[in-house]
Design goal:
8-stranded mixed β-sheet, two-stranded antiparallel sheet, 10 strands
């Protein structure tokens, strides 16, 4: 397709004539478009460019894990219905299952997975569930779950597996240290997380699969902690998409999004939950530069919707300090202090952004 250029209007000495819409040499004068409209077009182009870059990276960059052979592991332990009185038996059964998984991984020649599984077998580790198959799933308890009146469930983002579980666990430990004896924390690796460099991280597909599992877990948790305990969902990165999909009908009093690429919902009201909705983002978090939008492409929707810290989304926005994408549970941080206040119900002390 050929494009014709417009003739340039010249004044004296070949100097461009002054446009009624701007000064000579200004963007508005050069294009005949008001600055505000030009800025809007640039912003839209930038969003489209960034989204295209994400799609390209997800499609083109190889993911080594995709070619990794399946690691043998036993089926999860068969457990009695979880109650306060059956917790110790569940902990014991899941430790034994992790030990079997470690032996099978070692026999298979996978030392990394064997070491990761073996680390879960210490008597001090308490798991409500464990599944060593595939990338692995586990739900670990920190604190006295049977007697806690404030309970936080942490939902992780992309690339969280049994091999990378320790970094997720560190956040749960840091939060539990801030809560004190009133609180219990559960690290819920209850779904197959997407890879950071993959097409799945750009869609809600994994979240759609995970949401029913999370809602079922929260119902199961009520059988342990009782109706009076206050439950909070703390959701990081792609985990915010999982929590967004699980929000309708979920048994949580507070839902907290941080480091979010979008929740899959257009607004806090669109989550269709009676829970208080919170959002925060560290000033050095790279997720701020990801396009918070959604576009249709090849029969699917790419992108995860509006930024939950934007005023139009309607969440209660808390200060998250100067940290980056992996710093929200850093001991001594503003973000950790505010997350603990939300879980403990000290909402008047939460510092707002």
């Amino acid at each position: 397709m050929a494009f014709r250029s417009r003739p340039t209007t010249r004044g004296a000495a070949g100097v461009p004539a002054v446009s009624p819409r701007g000064r000579p040499g200004s963007p508005a004068a050069a294009t005949g478009v008001p600055r505000r409209r030009t800025g809007g077009r640039i912003a839209r182009r930038l969003r489209r460019t960034l989204l295209a870059a994400l799609v390209t990276a997800a499609v083109v960059v190889p993911v080594s894990a995709a070619a990794r052979p399946e690691i043998p592991a036993p089926a999860p332990a068969v457990l009695a219905r979880l109650t306060a009185s059956t917790l110790d038996k569940a902990y014991e059964a899941n430790r034994a299952n992790a030990a079997r998984a470690a032996r099978m991984a070692a026999d298979h020649g996978d030392r990394t997975r064997a070491a990761a599984d073996r680390s879960l077998t210490a008597p001090s580790r308490h798991f409500l569930s464990f599944d060593g198959r595939g990338p692995g799933r586990a739900v670990e308890v920190f604190g006295d779950l049977a007697h806690a009146d404030r309970v936080a469930v942490l939902v992780p983002g992309s690339d969280t597996t049994l091999e990378t579980y320790d970094r997720f666990r560190a956040g749960a430990v840091a939060l539990h240290d801030r809560l004190g004896p009133r609180g219990a924390v559960l690290a819920w690796l209850g779904y197959e997380t997407p890879g950071t460099v993959s097409t799945t991280v750009l869609t809600t597909d994994r979240a759609e699969d995970a949401a029913p599992l999370l809602r079922a877990f929260l119902r199961q948790l009520r059988g342990v902690v009782g109706r009076s305990a206050h439950l909070s969902l703390l959701c990081h990165s792609y985990g915010t998409v999982v929590c967004g999909r699980a929000a309708p009908g979920s048994d949580a009093s507070d839902i907290v999004f941080f480091g979010s690429p979008g929740t899959g919902a257009s607004s806090a009201a669109g989550l269709r939950t009676s829970a208080r909705v919170w959002a925060g983002r560290g000033s050095a978090d790279w997720i701020a530069h990801v396009p918070h939008t959604s576009v249709g492409l090849l029969g699917t929707s790419l992108g995860l919707g509006p930024d939950p810290v934007s005023p139009s989304f309607g969440a209660q926005v808390f200060r998250a300090g100067s940290g980056g994408h992996s710093d929200y549970f850093k001991p001594g941080s503003v973000s950790l202090a505010n997350l603990a206040r939300i879980v403990l119900g000290d909402t008047s002390e939460v510092t707002r952004a």
